[in-house]
Structure formats: C-alpha cells, structure tokens
Amino acid sequence: MTKKIPIKIDPCPIIEAAVDLRFDSAMPADAIFGIIYKSFRDEFHDKVEKLPILQIPEAIRSQDPNFRFQPYYRFQNENYLLQIGPRVINFINQENYLGWDAFYSRIKDALLKVQGLELVTQVNRLGIRYINMFPFDIYDRINLEIFMSGTRLRANQTTVRTTIQTSNFTTNLQIANNAQIATTTALKTGSVIDIDTYIEHDNLPIFPNPDEIIGNAHNEEKRLFFDLLKDDLIAEMNPVYAAE
Fold this sequence. Notes:
The protein has 244 residues and is an alpha+beta fold. The chain is built from five helices and eleven strands, in the order βαβαβββαββββββαα. The protein has helices at residues 29-40, 58-63, 100-117, 211-228, 231-236, and strands spanning 14-24, 47-50, 73-77, 80-85, 88-94, 122-134, 147-148, 151-152, 159-165, 170-182, 187-200.
C-alpha cells in the first residue's frame, strides 16, 4: 500500500526551500545580470546585493569550475530571494514557507520571464532543495536507525549523508541532530533533514512548460521526506490530505 502524502502540515518545519536552475548561455557573463535586473527590478525592489564571490578576480572565477554555477547577485522581496549568476538562477523561499502552490507560481512566472529574455540556450540541471528543522533529536522520530556492533548508535551529534538514485532523479540526503543553521533572523539549533533532489543532463525540457519536470522533482523530494518520518510524528503535525 502506497503511503498517503499530506498536502499540508502544521507546524511546518521548512526553514528554506530552493529551486536551482543551471544553464548555458551565449550572452557574456557580465551582461546577464543587467538583462535580468531590468526585467525583475520592479518585482524585487526591497534589496539588491552583490555576493562575496565578486570579490574574487574575474580571471579566477572564469577558470575555476567550482565557481561556474555560483550566483553573483541576490534580489530580495520580503522572504523570497532570486539569486543569479552567469550560468545559474536560484529561487529561494526563506522561513515563512509560502506553500508549494504559491512558491511554484512565483517560480513559474519568473522562469517564463527568463525564457522571454532569450539568454538561456539550454538547461543542464534542475534541483529542488528543502531544509527542515526540528527542536528535538530527529533520530528518535524517523524510520532510520544506525547500528554499531549490533547496538543502536545514540550520539549527541550525529550526521548521516547519503545519495539516493531513482529512475529519473538523484537525491542528496543529509540528516543531523544538534546542528546549527543561520536564518535571516537568528542562529537556530536543532535537528535538520536536508533533501536536495535534482536531475542533470543536456537540454532538460524546462521551457516552455516547466510544470512536469519541476512537479516531479518536488514530488520525489516530498515522498522521501514523509517516508522518513514515523507515523506518530506525522500525526503530531496535523496533516491535511487531498480529498479522494
């Protein structure tokens, strides 16, 4: 029997949700920011900032593959961020998660605007990442146990990292207790479930209709999250399910 997946939980543990798009462009790197800025400046009027990578000389940035998909600039509008670089666009919802429908609606509007700018020649990677935080030791409440010499391992600070491959997507999963994360308002301590689900190859069919591929990636991430949680924890989060 397939496990039912809630469409909403409360309280929501999500402290950050992000969609990452990596692409090739025929445009010069220093022209991409100006093109996107003109298109988005009215919507993202709260704040525009340069990111620290711009302190690195351009000659190094252009040669080092570690910098190829790093954003250079950040737009901010309330709790929604848009980060752009010569080969990447990040859409980020920090804290106060909008919910998938509202978040994706903003992403889709932005993607269609980017498509209209004709600066993307092909999309090479699509990723969705959710960072969830809990105020208790998450290893007591999930369907994952770690054993050493036949005895369950219980430690004050434990981090598990693994990569899970399905037919279409790859997921980097990280689980940690007693972790610290800096949010926009404070440094928080607790347990973290960090799920980064992505697909990468040349010419991903994002345009003109991104619904299917982004929707499938979101569903993959969400299924893994709820498969991890024990049923009693899900019940405590007041789940709401779609009407059958």
